[in-house]
Write a structure and sequence with these properties.
With 241 residues, this protein is an alpha/beta fold. It contains nine helices and seven strands; from the N terminus they run αααβαβαββαβαααββ. It has a domain at 43-171 and 206-239: 3-Layer(aba) Sandwich (Rossmann fold), CATH 3.40.50.150.
Length: 241
């Protein structure tokens, strides 16, 4: 904690990005991350974005809404989106993409076989889908990237998403960092989660970071919104005209 300088993004690597492990170890980490997501209301910003699109009439009704989740992990965000779609009576075609091959297996095992979700393994920048996507979402992904890669990802989102995209990530601040370090120990979360949680927060963003990165990516001023969500989420939304 004392080594983090919250005035800038940290560069310390996370165990999830660097440690090789077996499937059971990685699955246990993903399951505890999904637990953290539930406790911290992590799905709410993304579902709120979808609510806004539905209210504005941007969700197609004549065909399934096609959504890609980048860095889909345990698949819990897509399962939440599927539940949202069922409540809204919206047909969906969902795809989860993750770099770690264990993620697709873990997500598939946690998802009903009949769900309209496909799980793929690969690097997002090399991913060439057969069909385009209406929406691209990501959660807790961009803080794993350096600034240049975030800019590249924003440009990739612009190319791939026909209707819009949503980046759901963390707000860099000492308070959630200290709280998570204590809470993760008290809850006896997976050791990867205990180690990586504070680092993730220190690697994440403040509003000015996102303004600078959006500008570097070539997005016109005001074309994407940056919003703070409780507790300490900082999200970027883009709906194309």
């Amino acid at each position: 904690m004392a080594s983090f300088d919250f005035s800038r993004r940290a560069t310390m690597p996370e165990l999830m990005d660097t440690e090789r492990c077996d499937f059971a170890t990685f699955q246990g980490c993903l399951q505890d991350l999904a637990r953290v997501n539930r406790l911290t209301l992590a799905y709410r910003p993304t579902l709120g974005f979808l609510d806004g699109l539905a209210a504005s009439g941007r969700v197609p009704r004549e065909r399934p809404l096609r959504i890609l989740d980048v860095a889909s992990g345990h698949g819990d965000m897509l399962r939440q989106i599927l539940a949202w779609a069922e409540r809204r009576q919206v047909a969906v075609d969902l795809v989860g993409l993750d770099l770690n091959p264990w993620s697709a297996r873990a997500a598939r095992e946690a998802t009903p076989a009949a769900a309209p979700v496909a799980w793929h393994t690969g690097d997002v920048f090399a991913y060439r889908p057969e069909r385009g996507f209406d929406l691209v979402v990501s959660s807790l992904f961009t803080h794993h990237l350096d600034d240049a890669s975030v800019v590249r990802f924003l440009q990739w989102l612009e190319e791939q998403a026909a209707i819009g995209w949503f980046v759901n990530d963390l707000h860099r601040h000492s308070l959630p960092c200290r709280f998570f370090a204590a809470a993760s120990r008290a809850l006896r979360l997976h050791h990867f989660v205990q180690n990586d949680g504070p680092i993730s927060i220190a690697r994440s963003f403040v509003t000015e970071d996102w303004r600078r990165l959006l500008d570097r990516a070539g997005l016109p001023a005001g074309s994407a919104s940056i919003a703070w969500w409780m507790p300490f989420r900082l999200c970027v939304a883009r709906v194309k005209p």
